Amino acid sequence: MYVYLSAVEQLMKGRTSCPKCKKEIILELPDKEKHDVVCPKCNHKFSIKAKCDDSKSFEECSWEEHGEPRKTVLSSKKTKTKMPKIAAILLTLVFIIGITTAIFSESFIESSLDFASYAGFTGSLKILVTDQLNKTLDDVTIKIDDIKGVTNSKGYFSSEKIELGIKKLVISKDNYKNQTREILITPFFKFESTIILENESGQGKYIDFNSSGCSIILVIFSFIALIGAIACMKGQYFDIAIVGSLIGIFSFGFFLIGSILAIIAFVIIFKSKDEFENGKKGKIF
Predict the structure, then answer these.
(1) Domain covering 120-210, topology
(2) Less Cβ around it within 10 Å: N or C end of the chain?
(3) Where are the domains of the chain?
(4) Residue 129 near residue 171 (C-beta atoms within 8 A)
(5) Does the model's pTM come out above 0.70?
(6) Rg, Å, the chain Cα set
(7) Tens digit of each residue's pLDDT (9 = 90 or more) over 79-104
């Protein structure tokens, strides 16, 4: 088979048939050029052109471009809505409410948890009691509100369905100092702590509730909600937007308004997931 090409000619793939033996031949030839071809089966020599007109002979015109138009495999483009931006606004409000709650933490937290208690939410706790030598203590009396019990043989005390809010926990045992501390009971999270009792040789301890740690957690959760809001505003990173709305639920906010807004934002984001682009990977299908 003889095909004469220059170094700069652009090839196009096609097929033809030998006029003598009808063998199909696949070729790569420049467009609009005449070529001499030798059939690899019968050695018959004939000429073809990549493109031809009606005035040419059959031997010069038996060229057919190889392949078919490529079919699309992507889903049809959907009309964009304002749903991701609405979710962004809601998560921004979650951030603002969460930061405000963190600043005025104790009063806002108590009022929000009181509201949650009225709505039927409860909390739980698990306490481990040891002595100063890290030995677990059994039969330690634990009292919180109207709930009273003792630690088991492994030093543990647990209770469910505790009213939410800042509660006073009283721990006492013969020959040990009593200990009273304020703890925060919240929904969804079990309060867990290890308490060390000292041998009796003075007054018992009273430990106030420290709201600073709770404020830090609220600030972190609120900023994650803000990151989710930015992802929604840009219409990118669906996973980040979903995580931001989920974490925003636990920012609580005044009267749980932040949690309610975050839940609404989560539903909106999930329903509009087709409108998000996943960074360099492009649109999610």
Answers:
(1) Immunoglobulin-like (2.60.40)
(2) C
(3) 11-65, 83-98+214-279, 120-210
(4) yes
(5) no
(6) 38
(7) 678 899 999 999 999 999 888 887 77
